[in-house]
Design goal:
The complex is a heterotrimer of chains A (440), B (300) and C (341). Chain A is of the alpha+beta class and 440 residues long. In chain A, 44% of the residues lie in helices and 15% in strands. Chain A contains 18 helices and 18 strands. The longest helix of chain A has 20 residues, at 418-437. Chain B has a two-stranded antiparallel ribbon with strand order 1-2. Chain B folds into two domains: 1-30; 66-293, MetI-like fold (Orthogonal Bundle). In chain B, 50% of the residues are buried. Chain B has helices spanning 2-19, 21-41, 58-64, 67-98, 105-113, 120-130, 137-144, 159-169, 172-182, 187-195, 200-228, 232-237, 251-261, 265-293, and strands spanning 44-45, 53-54. Helix content of chain B is 71%, strand content 1%. In chain B, helix 4 (67-98) crosses helix 9 (172-182), helix 9 (172-182) packs across helix 11 (200-228) and helix 13 runs antiparallel to helix 14 (265-293). In chain C, the strands form two sheets. In chain C, strands 2, 3, 4, 5, 6 and 7 form a six-stranded antiparallel β-sheet that branches. A two-stranded antiparallel sheet of chain C has the order 1-8. Chain C is elongated. The chains are: A alpha+beta (440), B mainly alpha (300), C alpha+beta (341). Chains in contact: A-B, A-C, B-C.
Amino acid sequence: MTTGQMRTKLLVSLLTLSLAICPGCARRHGPSVGGKVVISVWHPWGGTQKERLDQVVAEFNRTHKHIQVRAVFTPNDLNADQKLFTSVAAGQPPDATFVDGPQVAGWAEQGALAPLDRFVKQSGIEPHDYFAPCWQQCSYRGHIWAMTYCADPNFAFAWNKKVFRECGLDPDKPPTTIAELDAINDRITKIEHGRIIRIGIIPWSQFGNANSIFTWGWAFGGGFYDPKTDKITADDPRVVKALEWMTSYAKKYDVSTINGFRQGFGSRDQNPFYIGKVAMQCLHISQLDDIATYAPDLDYGLTYIPAPPDGEQHSSWVGGWCLAIPKGSRHPKEAWEFLRWCSHDPKGTQAVGRLQSLLPGCRTSPYIKEAAKKPGYSQFLKIMEECRHQRPVMPAQNFYMGSLDRAVDFAVYGQLTSRQALRKSAEETQAELDLRLAGR
Amino acid sequence: MKKRQSTTEKRNLRNGLLFCSPVIVGLAVFTLYPMLASLYYSFCNYPMLKPPVWVGLTNYRVLIHDPVFYKSLSNTAYYAAFATPAGIVTAFLLAVLLNQKVRGMAIFRTMFFVPSIVPMVAGSVLWLWLLNPDYGLINTILRSMHLHAPGWLNDPATAKPALILMSVWGVGGWMLIYLAGLQDVPVDLYEAAEIDGAGPLQRMLHITIPFMSPHLFFTLVMGFIGAATYFTQAYVMTGGQGGPVDSTRFFSIYLFQNAFMYWKMGYACALAWILFVLILLFTLALFKTSARYVHYGGER
Amino acid sequence: MSTDNRRRPVRFATIITYVALVLFGTAFTLPFFWMVSTSLKPAARIQKFPPDIIPMRAVVVKVGGKTCEVYRQKDGSEVAVIEKIQGGAARVKPLSGPATPGRTISMDGLTPVIGPGCEWSNYSKGLVFIPFAAQLRNTLIISICCVIGTILSCSLVAYGLSKIDWKGRNTLFVIVLATMMLPAQVTMIPVFTIFVRLHWINSFLPLIVPSFLGTPFFIFLLRQFFMGIPRELSEAATLDGCSEFGIYRRIVMPLSKPALATVGLFTFMGAWNEFLGPLIYLLDETKYTLSLGLAMFTGQYGNEYGMLMAVSTVVTIPIIVLFFFTQRTFIQGMTMSGIKG
């Protein structure tokens, strides 16, 4: 061995060593900074909502002298939260985290969350403080696992009055039944040389395949899950009818062209509904703000989702995000204060509502009255009051969403009939659920 | 004679291990345990946040009867079969093209390299716009030439080709490897061949390609492994579901779904190890047959 | 006479080359130009179809100190929209003809007047929306350290696997390659656990240290290059009394500058754009890298496309410039003067 070789070895090991003992890099936020407890909250609010969430957090910090919240953006899609699960699995979770409503049961079953029962009791929070579906979304197996941050009443049904006028329809008479919806759609839809100039409605384009089938399935009077028997009922005959109705549009028009159309829905200003390419659309509450900002001259109306006469009138389901405390959180008490403030506290819910233009799940919040006065929000509130559903609260919800998404896909593309697609979905999800419930 | 050989052998062994010590340390510390752990998990039910429970061959048995396993495998095989050669051929032709002594070559080389450095977030958005069947640029151009404008990512028949197109766009890196390699092909050989009357095609077949064979082989193996584990772009472009109608549900996407969406890490590990074995066998086959078509300049 | 015959084919080949270069070059850089073009458009025009090739924006005019957009009426006259009223009406002021006070008319029949212009606010707002400077610094630190680590470690290992004849080198090579064949998702949690035990979470160490321990991709790449270096060179050096490390340092490395430059560039780009590693190992937003920062422009309820493209452009252009000016290093061959193949 020569000095040269020794030198290299030494160099490499020295470098590695120096990096390894570089403690300055491995700063972890200590338990207190100047007497305040600093807690980390992971959130998925990127894009247009990021600054608003920062304002909410700033307001919390301002009103709480002993707790400081550090909001950390964690890019997440609704399907998987790798960062959180990896961290909890390795015992390094954040103090609090946002969790999507339908995920609560699954995460609770997996042991990712800490039950909040005693905190809820201590703070004197009662179930009837909340809209029923909001509370149900967070309850699983007799425990509370999360607190509703915002309640999204899904959906209001919006129609473009200007397009109605252009097509000789009464701009103040939106469809209330499916038959009316179909008739109006036929009047409005215009296709030239295989390209869609304008379409009445794209049934499966209400925020994704799965959310679309939930929406129309319930509107048609069907059900997706029976909590009493733990049975998946995706192949409920009414749900099948809903999917058959959805696919009738796919048969009328070319699927690939329509689906290419849909991309615009992700944008704030080129949303096909805002620019008049789609005349009727289910509207999410966050879009009220978008329209006011990006399409202020849009002449539109809001009403309830149409339903067949034997279906469920004024149908809706609640979505929205919740806050939870992951298992192994280092500061559960302080984290709970953040949860309580955002979800239940009059001032806190007001801040969330005002800054992010979202509805609180807590019906006793003073913001509810405020919201009722804002144009558009009043309709959403009315929908919220009558809201009866939330997506199934069971541990295979994640799987179910994916399964339903594929079912709609296969039906719309004509590869399976609606009944076959939904039956397949029900079977595979049931199998999955049974495994989970068996404590696997 | 024998004694001297063993001393040389011993010295070579020691030197070899010494030079390779970084990777040996790396393997021991960061790679071996995780790989063995995942192998162990493949025989367990492991929902990640609860301890793994031994179930023996259950996962593998389920796997054999899982239609999605076969579908995702075929999707991946399709992708590997088309994307790898397409990428290699494109990159190679580009490298040859960019090796010419023409003015402004620096600019052209940069142009072909740019795609591979556009950040993925932006790149995906851009390609979604480009591939939009309704208003995307690609279909607009096709329509203006009176050609059929396919549904791309929204049509099960053209979804994979769309992704392959996207991956070919990013071959700037391979092109660079070939470019570097092309510099070492002795110029006098070309001249000699030209004098002997060999045309450009023959020169390429009998001089360029053999000399480039180590690099072509490298990209073949790497390209195959990359295609077999293809995940990120497909996930981002199709919203993670592998649609439409499972046409883009590649093996790694199904794996990811099992691991982080359905919380079946054990099953995901079983899938991973099946893929591992398949890739390993295929790669070994490539290596075993490589002696026939790969020529290293420095050896023997 | 003979020179004339030789000149014509050369020029034809050059023309073909240029045509091919321009055609394919345009196709390849199109998405990039789209990115830059989008970054200069105001949000309202980003996804308009047919798209603006040159960035266009609404023409504005100042009315009473307020900046108002200009619209054209059906009769061709222009008005400035002072205020839009929900429901499709607007308060406007005519821009031509006699000065009359503002009046309220319907937005029906009004078309916005647009003209070429760059929306620089995407840049100014985008670079402030995310903690750009901090993320840039973080990304640079990580990337540069990775480059150093990778070049050092991978060249050493590649040398050991190609230039030294020892038992077990092929086995080691296969093992190294094999580690690339197992999808990373299933080793993510055990690897994470290792870093937790080492207390390296929320630091850059998990992102840097592994590069000092060899990356299979580059080990393989350099091995291929090293195997192209004639053994006569090593043998000659050995006869001169050079050690193994000496050969590595004085002969193989200098000859491999293009390959090493390639490794360096690829490593830099890989670290620059890496997403998953920073995502799961970094817990403070101040430690985030640019790739995570770019993700901040996308959200559940809407993406900020203009800013995303602007910051992406800022992130991409330095690498392009770097590449443009260091190209020669890549295309320099290994000078092997005096050695016949």
